[in-house]
């Protein structure tokens, strides 16, 4: 059971207060409700059924949900509102007669009737007034307890807020300290890296200079070697070998022998001129030294020498026979 008590003022008696108690079941007034009206001396009771609520909504051509919302605002709102007004007939009411309570809604200076209920006089109004006072006191106590709980909750939240604020300040200070420390470490590490990079660059520069110097020395040595090789090759080409000197001496001896001989011989020396080994002329080649320098084959040289000695002996025999 839900209960609401509020103060109302009649439109014909604005300076006089009435107290209206409404009891209902469920989530709203759509399933019916009970009313108790009192001025502190007299009291009246009445009831509105669910069928009456539906009928009044149909008469006003309003949706039931909208009608129930307006009805609940008019009868159960704790604070008086200028949007709703009440009338009581007959006026002034008596304790022995039935009265009709009408509730209307004001909208743009136009009022229309939300509903009305017949209230019967209570035989013992003091008891009804006592019920209203008890409910009002209970509601006041509940509101006071709720207010106390809200104050405690508010105090707890304020304390938590203060603790959170202090923690945030502490965290902010810690973050600033940590930032400063990290920045100093970063600067120190950066300087170390820069120093290391500079030393590495200097080492690389020195190594590059050493390498270039070594390469230049190697190039100079290679150039000197090539120059010395060319000079030795020129000396070798320009000079004559011992074998060539021997061949020249043998050729000169054979030539003088042929001049001394005046008698014809069956063995003509002209026929062996082609057989005798002649000194081969060496020519300088423009190609590499390896291709220009070619030594005689020892076996071929020995064959020529043997043939030369045979011819020489034959010539001597011919001269002796003559």
UniProtKB/TrEMBL annotation:
Residues 17-119 form the XRCC4 N-terminal domain. The keyword Kinase does not apply. GO terms for molecular function: DNA binding. Residues 231-301 form the XRCC4 C-terminal domain. Residues 208-232 have a biased composition (Basic and acidic residues). InterPro entries: DNA_repair_prot_XRCC4, XRCC4-like_C, XRCC4-like_N_sf, XRCC4_C, XRCC4_CC, XRCC4_N, XRCC4_N_sf. Residues 251-266 have a biased composition (Polar residues). Residues 233-246 have a biased composition (Acidic residues). Keywords: Coiled coil, DNA damage, DNA recombination, DNA repair, Nucleus. Residues 124-200 form the XRCC4 coiled-coil domain. One of its GO terms (cellular component) is DNA-dependent protein kinase-DNA ligase 4 complex. Residues 50-77 form a coiled coil. It holds the Pfam family XRCC4. GO terms for biological process: double-strand break repair via nonhomologous end joining; immunoglobulin V(D)J recombination; response to X-ray. Belongs to the XRCC4-XLF family. XRCC4 subfamily. This is DNA repair protein XRCC4-like.
């Amino acid at each position: 059971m839900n209960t609401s008590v509020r103060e109302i003022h009649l439109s014909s008696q604005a300076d006089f207060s009435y107290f209206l108690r409404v009891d209902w079941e469920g989530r709203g007034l759509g399933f019916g409700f009970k009313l108790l009206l009192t001025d502190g001396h007299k009291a009246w009771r009445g009831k509105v059924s669910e069928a009456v609520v539906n009928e009044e909504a149909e008469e006003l051509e309003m949706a039931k949900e909208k009608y129930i919302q307006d009805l609940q605002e008019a009868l159960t709102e704790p604070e008086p509102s200028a949007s709703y007004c009440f009338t009581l007939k007959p006026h002034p009411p008596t304790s022995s007669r039935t009265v009709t309570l009408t509730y209307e809604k004001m909208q743009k200076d136009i009022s229309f009737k939300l509903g009305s209920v017949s209230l019967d006089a209570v035989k013992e109004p003091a008891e009804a007034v006592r019920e209203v006072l008890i409910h009002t006191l209970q509601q006041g106590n509940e509101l006071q307890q709720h207010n106390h709980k809200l104050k405690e909750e508010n105090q707890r939240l304020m304390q938590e807020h203060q603790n959170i604020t202090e923690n945030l300040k502490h965290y902010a200070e810690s973050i600033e300290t940590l930032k400063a420390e990290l920045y100093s470490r970063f600067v120190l590490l950066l300087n170390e890296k820069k120093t290391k990079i500079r030393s590495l660059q200097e080492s690389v520069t020195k190594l590059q200079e050493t390498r270039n110097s070594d390469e230049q020395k190697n190039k100079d040595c290679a150039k000197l070697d090539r120059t010395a090789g060319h000079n030795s090759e020129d000396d070798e080409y320009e000079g004559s070998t011992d074998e060539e000197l021997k061949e020249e001496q043998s050729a000169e001896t054979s030539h003088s022998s042929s001049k001394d001989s005046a008698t014809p011989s069956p063995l003509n020396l002209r026929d062996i001129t082609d057989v005798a080994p002649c000194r081969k002329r060496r020519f300088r080649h423009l190609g590499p030294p390896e291709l220009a320098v070619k030594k005689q084959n020892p076996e071929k040289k020995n064959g020529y020498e043997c043939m030369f000695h045979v011819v020489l002996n034959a010539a001597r025999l011919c001269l002796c026979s003559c």
